[in-house]
Specification:
The complex is a heterodimer of chains A (126) and B (366). Chain A has 4 helices and 9 strands. With 126 residues, chain A is α+β, with helices and mostly antiparallel strands. Chain A has a 6-stranded antiparallel β-sheet. Chain A is globular, with a radius of gyration of 13 Å. In chain B, a hairpin with a 2-residue loop joins β2 and β3. Helices cover 22% and strands 35% of the residues of chain B. The longest helix of chain B is centred in the middle third of the chain and has 15 residues. Chain B has a 6-stranded mixed β-sheet. With 366 residues, chain B is an alpha+beta fold. Chain B is built from 9 helices and 22 strands. In chain B, α2 packs across α8 and α5 packs across α7. Chain B has 2 domains: 227 residues, Probable tRNA modification gtpase trme, domain 1 (Gyrase A, domain 2); 113 residues, Elongation Factor Tu (Ef-tu), domain 3. The chains are: A alpha+beta (126), B alpha+beta (366). At the A-B interface, β4 of A face loops of B.
């Protein structure tokens, strides 16, 4: 299983990366894209929206099924990856490069309380 | 879970295996969309051994099947001809859909769905006393089924099995040949040319490997579903079941009401008539994928629901089959409730792609 060590993860299969400007990028894990199969639609939240940790904020649809994407931390959406609306297959090609949206977190330390790679691996294999 | 004779091959090939009606089957071997394209552009091979072959032997076979099936096997005059039909309950509900083959007056064969096979057998055996006692019904659990489909399917099949070319090259669509204990039929579930092959389970792996070596791409049930939906073919359990009449499932063309022939379900069909139509939908705007059970609305009023929906790899947009009130016709624009959003969809005839080509008009085919 591809699992970069420098990212944080959620039980609901998002990966989370802290960017240099303090915002966090969110995508779905390689494990999640593999479970979903060929992805044909990504709906990311609109910038400006305030979200709470654990809230469903978008949708990923594969040929097989629709799956919600959740906010890993509370904050404000600051960007959505427009490239994925025209090329959703990028998520299958490289899940950890295909960020879906970015949040400005209310509490920067909230990211540190998410799963690390080892804990996520454990939650997936459980 | 039940396993086909090719189970080990699928696992070694890295297939994602899923439970399909109690059978462990390959969903895909990496990319469902690539498998789909392989069938539209070249050739793909499917393990469909979960489906059941049922043989009817005895001089009363034809009389029996004329009573048990809604289409009329009297149409099967020449040996090797096949017919698509529904098998109905007394109340007209669809118990199963199947293909029936005629080989000799004392030998017919059907291929039925996996999930309904055991029920079908019990039902058919219960009908023997009513329609004809001179028929033996045998479940051929010893046979495997492999489908090879695509514009180059027959060519690749002959490359893999040169000894079967002479017997199978003359086959017209819906024709079948028996060569020893191997049946090759020019039928399928993809909207492409190709063969479906029933053969002893012990020979399945050899045929499969030869077809793959000849260039046919292994395809899972995922691609099988998107291919049949593009071709506008019904899936039992989704687009119809025992609560639905063939008239409400777009299958009136498979029911032969002509003449005096009686068959199970006929009197109910004559009383109830048709209330719904099965039509196609093409999603006109981005916003998601059409899925089974989503509501279809017209002028704010519910007019039906989607029975099968997916993303069409050939058309690069979402398509669906929907059971709609009579009066909603091809060409109309309706709304579909997709996860709380109302998205516009065009109603079309329920056939989207045939022989690799889009059947949509320019209006839908932007």
């Amino acid at each position: 299983m591809k699992l970069p060590q420098d990212l944080r993860y959620t039980e609901s299969h998002e990966w989370v990366r802290r960017e240099a400007d303090g915002n966090v990028s969110v995508g779905i894990t390689d494990h999640a894209q593999e479970q979903l199969g060929d992805i044909v639609f990504v709906e990311a939240p609109h910038p400006g929206r305030k979200v709470k940790a654990g809230e469903a904020v978008g949708v990923v649809e594969s040929v097989k099924a629709a799956s919600d994407i959740y906010a890993p931390v509370s904050g404000e959406i600051v960007a959505a990856n427009a490239e994925l609306s025209s090329s959703p297959e990028k998520v299958n090609e490289d899940a950890f490069a295909a960020w879906m949206y970015r949040i400005r977190p209310d509490d920067a330390a909230a990211i540190d309380r998410l799963l690390d790679a080892a804990a996520y691996r454990k939650s997936v294999s459980a | 879970m039940r396993k086909t004779p090719l189970n080990a091959w699928h696992r070694e090939a890295g297939a994602r295996m899923v439970d399909f009606g109690g059978w462990e089957m390959p969903l895909h071997y990496g990319s469902q969309i690539e498998e789909h394209h392989a069938v539209r552009r070249d050739a793909g091979v499917f393990d469909v051994s979960h489906m059941r072959v049922v043989d009817f032997r005895g001089s009363g076979s034809r009389a029996f099947l004329r009573g048990a099936l809604a289409n009329d096997v009297a149409r099967l005059a020449a040996p090797g001809k096949a017919l698509y039909t529904c098998m109905l309950a007394e109340d007209g509900g669809v118990l199963d859909d199947l293909i029936v083959y005629f080989f000799r007056e004392d030998f017919f064969r059907a291929v039925v769905n996996a999930s309904t096979a055991d029920k079908d057998l019990a039902w058919l055996r219960s009908l023997r006393s009513r329609w004809s006692s001179d028929v033996e019904i045998e479940s051929r659990d010893d046979l495997a089924l492999i489908a090879i489909q695509g514009p180059r399917a027959r060519e690749r099949f002959w490359q893999a099995m040169p000894g079967l070319r002479a017997a199978t090259e003359p086959l017209a669509p819906f024709g079948a040949a028996l060569v020893g204990d191997v049946m090759v039929a020019r039928t399928g579930y993809t909207g492409e040319d190709g063969f479906e092959v029933a053969l002893p389970a012990s020979h399945a792996a050899a045929l499969w490997k030869a077809l793959v070596a000849a260039g046919a791409r292994p395809c899972g049930l995922g691609a099988r579903d998107t291919l049949r939906l593009e071709a506008g073919m019904n899936l039992y359990g989704q687009d119809m079941d025992e609560r639905v009449s063939p008239f409400d499932a777009g299958l009136a063309w498979t029911v032969d009401l002509s003449g005096a022939r009686d068959f199970v379900g006929k009197s109910a069909l004559l009383v109830h008539g048709s209330r719904h139509e099965l039509l196609g939908l093409v999603l006109l705007e981005p916003g998601g994928v059409l899925r089974a059970h989503q509501e279809v609305l017209s002028g704010g009023r519910r007019v039906g629901e989607i029975t099968s929906g997916t993303y069409s790899p050939t058309l690069a947009r979402s398509i669906a089959l929907a059971r709609l009130e009579r009066g909603i016709a091809a060409g109309a624009t309706v709304q579909v409730d997709v996860r709380g959003k109302r998205l516009a969809a065009r109603v079309v005839k329920p056939s989207f792609v045939r022989r690799g080509k889009s059947l949509l008009s320019d209006k839908e085919d932007r």
